[in-house]
Amino acid sequence: QVQLVESGGGLVQAGGSLKLSCVASGSVFGIVAMSWYRQAPGKQRDLVAAITSGGSTAYADSVKGRFTISRDNGKNTMYLQMNSLKPEDTGVYYCNADRNTLLGGPQNYWGQGTQVTVSS
User: CB–CB of 67/59 below 8 Å?
Assistant: First the structure.
């Protein structure tokens, strides 16, 4: 099992910045990719950014150039630096991890989420 704990959310004015963190614990060996998802009120949960264990990254078009995903493998921590925030960035941000296991196959885990609110 993998436990994911997010932190760093809060209330910020449009144009401001926040940095989210996600700490993984438990059976972290075998995690091949980690991602940030966002869920706005009344909407589906959408992928914001992803990073592989090798450091490859991908971003949703809506956040390219404003958000940066990174990870510190030694600390089992993933980050999301969010700059130039917009009201439409408001939502609950969830950490997600994909893990491959030899016997159990692929596994997927979610954190509990952290609220980000951007005021106009």
Answer: yes
Kindly report, residue by residue over 52-81, the tens digit of the pLDDT. 999 999 999 999 999 999 999 899 999 999
Tokens found for residue 105: 């196959």
* In contact, 23 and 34? CB cutoff 8 Å: no
Q: Which residues contact 82 (CB under 8 A, 6 or more apart)?
A: 17, 18, 19, 20, 63, 66, 67, 89, 116
Tokens of 85: 């925030």
> 């979610």: which residue's tokens?
110
Share of the chain above pLDDT 90, in %: 90
